[in-house]
Amino acid sequence: MLEIRLTNVAKRFQYDWIFRNLDLHVKPKDKIAITGSNGSGKSTFLKCLAGTNPFTEGKASYLLGQQEITENEIYQHLAISAPYMELPEEFSLLELLKFHFNFKSAHPGMGFDEMIKAMYLEEATHKQLSFFSSGMKQRVKLGLCFFSNAPLLLLDEPTSNLDSKGSEWYKDLVQQYGHDRTVFVASNSPYEYDFCNQQLHIEDYKLKKQL
């Protein structure tokens, strides 16, 4: 179970504060929606949370049970699905799963066959990802995220490129594989985050250009 506490965190690019003076306490199993207009900093916030783009100011504390996790270690305990994620298109689906889960442990009870079936991609098991449609690739991204045995899930525009059936499938993933984990959803679509118990509007913490 992962607990997160952000204290006075901020992110700046040159003279532009993307957000500042942000405090947030996230308890285990909390579901948090990150909202804001396009370009407001939702994706940047998730990258900061993941430790790939560190906060400029403030402190991020991560507590896994009784163990404190540093910002440099948190990547080991999370999984992410985002539009800017690139899939290795020379891999087949099965090859990608084998590669990914060589570094991440799988959700209990999930083997490769079960994952592929859960993604409804059985007929594409040995197909190169370069031949996948955008919707199929989004299913793969979400599958890699939800099927990873990580206490923290970061979802950026999770239904991007999904049709109505795919969007319903996303909701099923949340219910089946996300209920016992901490989940952040960066989105402008209430459908994608209507299960969240907290909402953070990133523009409430945005300042104008200044030194």
Characterise this structure.
The protein is of the alpha/beta class. It has one domain: Rossmann fold, CATH 3.40.50.300. It has helices at 42-50, 93-100, 112-118, 134-146, 164-177, 190-193; strands at 2-13, 16-26, 31-35, 57-64, 67-69, 78-81, 152-156, 182-186, 198-201. The protein has a five-stranded parallel sheet with strand order 6-7-8-3-9, with helices on both faces. α4 (134-146) runs parallel beside α5 (164-177). The chain is globular and about 50 Å long.
Briefly summarize what is shown:
By secondary structure, the chain is of the alpha/beta class.
Comma- or semicolon-separated keywords:
single chain, 211 residues, alpha/beta, Rossmann fold, five-stranded parallel beta sheet, four-stranded antiparallel beta sheet, 6 helices, 9 strands
